[in-house]
Design brief:
This protein is an alpha/beta fold. The chain has one domain: Aldolase class I (TIM Barrel). It contains 13 helices and twelve strands. The chain has a twelve-stranded mixed beta sheet with strand order 7-8-9-6-5-4-3-2-1-10-11-12. A hairpin with a 4-residue loop joins strand 10 and strand 11. The protein starts with a helix and ends with a helix. The N terminus is likely disordered. The structure holds S-adenosylmethionine and iron/sulfur cluster (SF4) (2 copies). One iron/sulfur cluster binds next to helix 13.
Length: 334
């Protein structure tokens, strides 16, 4: 794709990381060997305050953002996250969502909904406890995550999407059981190709299960047919069960890059703006907010960065680019 085409992509969605900490150590995101006891996470004073986040969110909405997703690290570990949700929910017309590992959802789903959250995505990589543990390196029962999913649904945070990152040889045997588990449940399972984000997960191309193979493996048991996009630029390709049991999504960021449709910006927990998941550096927005920049100055700064954007990493990915240092998923928030 010519670089010129990538320059005209509108800014539509924003992911905001509210913490770089997590209670899991997923092998594809925060491997324990790197994120161990000695790892130094961001200091509390380095994190954007809720007021600073709300100010920045308005600057992005002024530039066309319609959807904000809170993420992390684990966003539900950030104290009083409901207060931030309530502040962002005051911005008119915003679709406000959150991605979580689900561990704290049983306690928090009701309050999040009451504060104005629209939906949640819950990450769950297997319905088998041993496989789940092999993926996240902590001892947390699958059953408790399922309780979190049900709590979210009961609170009205629907449809609940369930993210499963597929790593060959680790959890690919869970693809069909996970499809069976969520078939007919009203929740939408989304199967994600394992990506080479960050520099710590030791990514190898042969560990990626291509989306086409994922669909074929599920369809052999529970026949699928393609479904239309919900909106242009939708990241997940939708597939519908032929028997009316709902739908799944597959996210083929490795085998079918979608940079030409990418309308997403990201802010790290310390206020750096990244225009690509695979960027090597970001723009410090916190400095601007902390020196009291006016709303229109912030909006202009965001516009300036976005206008200069030519990101298309997934379209040029190779074994060489995989080795280039990049920011970590837990820092930028997926
Ligand atoms: N802790 C929360 C969670 O796990 O849902 C939110 C942050 S997490 C970084 C956001 C999403 O990124 C999760 O669905 C996770 O599975 C996904 N993710 C993390 N590392 C990934 C990788 N290497 N490839 C593909 N997806 C990844
Ligand atoms: Fe934590 Fe989410 Fe990363 Fe897993 S994917 S280590 S739950 S931030
Ligand atoms: Fe967007 Fe970068 Fe991902 Fe391409 S590689 S889809 S530009 S975040």
């Amino acid at each position: 794709m010519p670089v010129q085409d990538t320059l005209s992509r509108p800014l539509r969605d924003l992911r905001i990381s509210v913490t770089d900490r997590c209670n899991f150590r997923c092998v594809y995101c925060m491997p324990k060997t790197v994120f161990g006891r000695d790892y130094s996470f961001l200091d509390r004073k380095e994190l954007l305050t809720f007021e600073e986040i709300a100010t920045l969110a308005r600057a992005f909405v002024a530039n066309g953002v319609e959807k904000i997703r809170l993420t992390g690290g684990e966003p539900l570990l950030r104290r009083d996250i409901e207060r931030l949700v309530a502040m962002l929910a005051e911005i008119p017309g915003l679709d406000l969502t959150l991605t979580t590992n689900g561990t704290l959802l049983p306690q928090k789903a009701e309050a999040l909904r009451a504060a104005g959250l629209t939906r949640v995505t819950v990450s769950l990589d297997s319905n088998d406890d041993a496989v789940f543990k092999a993926m996240n390196d902590v001892d947390f029962p699958v059953e408790r995550v399922l309780e979190g999913i049900e709590a979210a649904a009961a609170a009205g945070l629907t449809p609940v999407k369930v993210n499963m990152v597929v790593k060959r040889g680790v959890n690919d045997a869970s693809i069909v059981p996970m499809a069976r588990l969520f078939h007919g449940s009203g929740h939408i399972l989304r199967l994600i190709e394992y990506m080479d984000v960050g520099a710590t997960n030791g990514w190898r191309l042969d560990e990626v299960v291509p989306a086409a193979e994922i669909v074929q493996r599920i369809s052999a048991e529970l026949p699928l047919e393609p479904a239309a996009q919900n909106y242009p630029g939708e990241v997940a390709r939708r597939w519908r069960y032929r028997d009316g049991g709902g739908e799944i999504g597959v996210i083929a960021s490795v085998t079918q890059a979608f940079c030409h449709d990418c309308t997403r910006a990201r802010i790290s927990a310390e206020g750096k703006l990244f225009t690509c998941l695979f960027a090597q550096r970001g723009t410090d927005l916190r400095a601007l907010v902390r020196r009291g920049a006016a709303d229109d100055e912030l909006a202009a700064a965001v516009a300036g960065v976005w206008r200069g954007r030519a990101d298309r990493y997934s379209e040029i990915r190779s074994s060489e680019t995989a080795a280039v240092p990049k920011i970590e998923m837990s820092y930028i928030g997926g």
